[in-house]
Amino acid sequence: xxxxxxxxxxxxxxxxxxxxxxxxxxxxxxxxxxxxxxxxxxxxxxxxxxxxxxxxxxxxxxxxxxxxxxxxxxxxxxxxxxxxxxxxxxxxxxxxxxxxxxx
Length: 103
Hints:
Helices cover about 35% and strands about 10% of the residues. It has about 100 residues and is α/β, with parallel strands linked by helices. The protein has one domain (about 1-95). Strands 2-1-3 form a three-stranded parallel sheet, covered by helices on one side.
């Protein structure tokens, strides 16, 4: 009887280990909608915080999207993100318009 329980436990344990993918797989890309034109996967993580900057051009369409995101993210996080300069390289969310008919 104890052997049957042990076999059942091991079988369930092995099933659970193989049935689910790891939550943080390097080969998987994050689900982002709309699909970005370019996304560079690197080691580490991006942590949104109160010092994160919003970067966008001065074009009206892009600024509207950036402003919408800025307003939208403020509600759940409480962060009042500020705008950064185009050359901001770190801790920034960048909005750009890409003119490419193949997208």
